[in-house]
Design brief:
Radius of gyration: 25 Å
Family: Belongs to the ABC transporter superfamily. Sulfate/tungstate importer (TC 3.A.1.6) family.
Strand order of the largest sheet: 6-7-8-3-9-10
Number of domains: 2
Subunit structure: The complex is composed of two ATP-binding proteins (WtpC), two transmembrane proteins (WtpB) and a solute-binding protein (WtpA).
Helix content: 10-25%
GO molecular function: ABC-type ferric iron transporter activity; ABC-type tungstate transporter activity; ATP binding; ATP hydrolysis activity
Distance between the termini: 35 Å
Number of helices: 8
Structural class: alpha+beta
Number of strands: 20
CATH superfamily of the largest domain: P-loop containing nucleotide triphosphate hydrolases
Largest sheet: 6 strands, mixed
Shape: globular
Subcellular location: Cell membrane
Main location: membrane
CATH architecture of the largest domain: 3-Layer(aba) Sandwich
């Protein structure tokens, strides 16, 4: 097989094993020129191993890696035209910001004047002008992360590889750096592979997302696509809170404790997924406009005001788990804990069979 010359990065049947355990198993995907592709999944699912294999820091047992149409599977890391930003930043502690950023141009044999000019330009782009003579120990976590980005960008790679780069920052800095990554990407247009376990981070940054589990690539698509059309129960559960309700398909209908749904599925046991934005609450009568099948009544057992969002935990009749219902603060119906409410849900929820495969 040959790599796709229209893709900046192409993986074909990639597998890496540690002893008898496969860290990644037959992984294939393409990263298009100029896009941010996020590998998303829980810890230990193979995301970082996949990234390291693209970078040349791990050797595959099977499969191939292509960069800009050229097979680089057996090439050393330094010749792959990629650059990695690590979770731990990996800055040289004895070098200043300028010296850290100059490192790649210096290794490429650039003159002192030229590499200083390039480094200062990148430092300005990442918002660290005035910090050129500072040492890493004098910088905040966010500033260290910016230096790590600047050092990778100064190498002018075809592919930027980001390994959980924001995981060591607090929530406020993570939000700030997500926007900073987007700004830097708009400035440089680098093809980027970004590894993260954070759905919000992936959905903020990615043009496309690849969902991984147990070393396998489960689904690839735009963020809105994988959220609204998950291929299986794992993807649906991983991409946000949901309540799974047991049901039975018979004669084209799904009977659940919550509601009855029409279904084009084979008879048998299923699970119905109901996300907070798909569960509607109202005063016991009438049912809300825009709601789906009415399930009857429930009791508000918890109301959580999160500022812009209000969430309700509702114990519905004949249902073991609580249903979650979510409203923007402006649309909050204003129910109190202990109050009885009518509950309705969407007409077309996601339905999964006993193996976790999506059936409707």
């Amino acid at each position: 097989m040959t790599g796709n010359h229209e893709a900046t990065v192409s993986l074909e049947g990639l597998s890496v094993a540690y002893g008898d355990e496969r860290a990644i198993d037959d992984v294939s995907f393409e990263v298009h020129r100029g896009e941010i592709f996020c590998l998303l999944g829980p810890s230990g699912c193979g995301k970082t191993t996949t990234l390291k294999t693209v970078a040349g820091l791990e050797s595959p047992d099977e499969g191939d890696v292509y960069v800009r149409g050229s097979r680089v599977t057996d090439e050393p890391a330094y010749s792959r035209d990629t650059s990695v930003v690590f979770q731990e930043w990996a800055l040289f502690p004895h070098k200043t910001v300028l010296e850290n950023v100059e490192f790649a141009p210096r290794m490429d044999g650039e003159s002192r004047e030229r590499r200083a000019e390039e480094a200062r330009s990148v430092i300005e782009t990442v918002g660290l002008s005035g910090k050129e003579d500072a040492y890493p120990e004098e910088l905040s976590g966010g500033q260290k992360q910016r230096v790590a980005f600047a050092r990778s960008l100064a190498a002018d790679p075809s592919v930027l590889l980001l390994d959980e780069p924001l995981s060591n920052l607090d929530e406020g800095l993570r939000r700030e750096m997500r926007l900073e990554i987007l700004r830097i990407h708009e400035e440089f247009g680098k093809t980027t592979v970004h590894v993260t376990h954070d759905q919000q981070e992936a959905f903020t940054l990615a043009d496309r997302v690849g969902i991984m589990r147990d070393g396998c690539l489960i689904q690839v698509g735009e963020p809105s696509e994988v959220y609204s059309e998950p291929k299986n129960r794992f993807v649906d559960d991983f991409l946000g809170e949901t309540t799974f309700v047991e049901g039975t398909v018979s004669d084209g209908c799904i009977e659940t404790p919550v509601a009855t749904f029409a279904a084009d599925a084979e008879d048998g046991d299923v699970e119905v997924s109901l996300r907070p934005e798909e569960v509607f609450l109202s005063a016991p009568e009438p049912s809300p406009d825009g709601g789906g099948s009415v399930s009857g009544t429930g009791e508000v057992v918890k109301r959580i005001d999160q500022g812009s969002i209000v969430r309700y935990h509702v114990h519905a009749d004949s249902l073991e788990d609580r249903l979650l219902s979510e409203y923007s603060a402006r649309e909050d119906p204003g129910f109190s804990e202990g109050q009885t409410v009518s509950v309705s849900v969407v007409d077309d929820p996601r339905v999964f069979d006993e193996s976790g495969r999506r059936v409707t």
